[in-house]
Amino acid sequence: MSNTPTIASDYQQSIESYRQLIESTGEDLERPGLLDTPERAAKAFGYLTQGYHQNLSDVVNDAVFPSSNRELVLVQNIEFYSLCEHHMLPFHGVAHIGYLPNGQVLGLSKFARIVDMYARRLQIQENLSEQIAQTIMDITGCRGVAVVMDAAHMCMMMRGVNKQHSTTRSTAMLGEFVHDVQARNEFLGAVPKRQPSL
Hints:
Elements: H1 11-23, H2 37-48, H3 56-60, E1 64-66, E2 73-84, E3 90-100, E4 104-106, H4 108-119, E5 122-123, H5 125-140, E6 144-153, H6 154-157, E7 168-175, H7 176-179, H8 181-190
Parallel strand pairs: 2-5
Antiparallel strand pairs: 1-4, 2-3, 3-6, 6-7
Helix pairs in contact: 1-2, 4-5
């Protein structure tokens, strides 16, 4: 898949919005360093929110394969970058995904692509974890999915409480992971420990 963002039809509107935003600070949009900034910022925002324009079937691309394995599969340390829907400031970190197959498995690269598809939207971390888990459950028909996400939030670090080393861990558990304590503990025991900051 290409990393070229899908630009929405209101791309020119985005450029004008960035012009107005920059001007609201009192800056001079005619100075050399800012001449092309509205267009660059609009392109960057298009990239950071391209998940809205991605189709799940294209992302997965039929990469579901038969397998007799029924034991835990863990894909860990999938880095992600997203934008907080409250302040539109970045949050970033890693996702760890475990699932219990039920006759078929998902191609490993698709976990990262699914994470990116949902992360590249305006988000909160709690919902992001649930969206990833439910999508993998739906695609694979597996017996259970567990997702742990660790992230640092710029809205806590750059503004507000200004806590530079805080991180947030969110979890989502579906299927057997909800009631099977042994399966849940196996997954959580295999997930890397949180670091003080990301």
